[in-house]
Amino acid sequence: MKKNIFLQIAVIVIMGFAFMLVVNSHHAWGQTQLRQSVEGKFEDYRKAIKESYQVDIKNFKDKLKGGYGDGKLITNYDLEQLLAGIKVELEHTSNQFIALELAMDHLERIPDYYERLFWLEREAMAAKGQERQKVEGKFEDYRKAIKDAFQIDIKNFKDSLKGGVADGKAITKYELGELLEGIKWERQHANDSFIALELAMDHLERIPDYFSRVLCRLESECVSDRLLRE
After folding, report:
1. 105 within some domain
2. Is there a contact between 112 and 78 (Cβ–Cβ < 8 Å)?
3. Could you tell me the CA-to-CA distances from 71 to 12, 47, 77, 100, 146 in Å, in that order?
4. Domain enclosing residue 191, as ranges
């Protein structure tokens, strides 16, 4: 009797171990398949970006600290949107890696950002020629307003992202309200308000009312579509 009980217990224990081995084997196989899938997707992105922009994203790292896309996987985003985004963001810099980083920040919040942006910018550019040429403001007024709002002094401001469309332009060329709004929006890319200012100037160089006409409308549409990611 006791012998039969011991045999039954032994069989149960052996079956338990066998079951655990099978489960672990399936788990390991699943992990391997997932890893291979992720690696394969990354290589697709790597090849596409290299062919389009002649850069290798193998060792890509964030340079602008504080952006929405910091630390995120490049493969989190739609490849076509990412490729379009790099092209658009090259208005700020000649560095393709920084352009990629800026694109990721936008796509982290709005997955189809560049598709929406294309049509809104096209409309704004069509209206641009109808606007009056703005008279430049006074530097000290701008300096005070920006210092009050963002605690930075623009007295010795210099471009740090080389290759932007507004490089070398006077800050006072742009409408002050748009500039203040722009710095606020562009801090989604970096904690540094000087970089945010530089990015804002690039946008306003192309479209003088970019933030009130284009970006606010784009964000409003995304909110109404319940698309915006906070």
Report:
1. no
2. yes
3. 47, 21, 13, 13, 30
4. 112-224
DSSP character at residue 136: P
Model-level pTM greater than 0.70? yes
Number of CB atoms found within 10 A of residue 28's CB: 10
In a domain, 143, yes or no: yes
Answer yes or no: is 77 within a domain: no
Q: How confident is the prediction along the chain (230 residues), in pLDDT tens digits per residue?
A: 555 666 666 667 677 666 666 555 555 444 544 455 556 799 999 999 999 999 999 999 999 999 999 999 999 999 999 999 999 999 999 999 999 999 999 999 999 999 999 988 888 887 765 554 555 679 999 999 999 999 999 999 999 999 999 999 999 999 999 999 999 999 999 999 999 999 999 999 999 999 998 888 888 877 666 555 55
Q: Which two tokens stand for residue 138?
A: 């006074």
Is residue 37 domain-resident?
Answer: no
Please name the helix (run of DSSP H) or strand (run of DSSP E) that holds residue 151, with its range, or none: none
Q: For 50-61, what is the HEC assignment? A: HHHHCCCCCCCC
Helix (H, G, I), strand (E, B) or coil at 93: strand
Other beta carbons within 10 angstroms of residue 217's beta carbon come to: 15
- Report how far residue 227's alpha carbon sits from residue 131's, in angstroms, rounded to the nearest whole number: 32
Q: How many beta carbons lie within 10 A of that of residue 65, not counting itself?
A: 11
AA letter at 124: A
Total domains present in the chain: 1
